[in-house]
Amino acid sequence: MDCLFCKIIKREIPADIVFEDEHVLAFNDINPQAPTHILIIPKQHIATLNDIEEADLALVGRLQFTAARLAQERGFADDGYRVVMNCNDQGGQTVYHIHMHLMGGRRFTWPAG
């Protein structure tokens, strides 16, 4: 498999890792869109949101839990933050391994910007 995030998990490609447990890895985005921009990924390869199965629900919930914990640890949870998951090409997904963007440290507007 030629998945960028799987290679990061295997330490074949370096990343600035900020959190890791048995199921999840989180690292700073190399092209940040906010003062804090962390990618949170499952260690299990799941290509898109469309590929999540019922057996994966706890894992996907763990991504959300990790985002909230990292926002709290970095001091912007109470001010607010953005969590985004993209799906497929038209949804803006560029790496086909589900991942969550945690962005904080600035005011966000809607639509996304």
TrEMBL record:
One of its GO terms (molecular function) is catalytic activity. Residues 4-113 form the HIT domain. InterPro entries: Histidine_triad_CS, Histidine_triad_HIT, HIT-like, HIT-like_sf. It holds the Pfam family HIT. SUPFAM superfamilies: HIT-like. A motif (Histidine triad motif) lies at residues 97-101. The active site is at residue 99. This is Histidine triad nucleotide-binding protein. It comes from Billgrantia montanilacus.
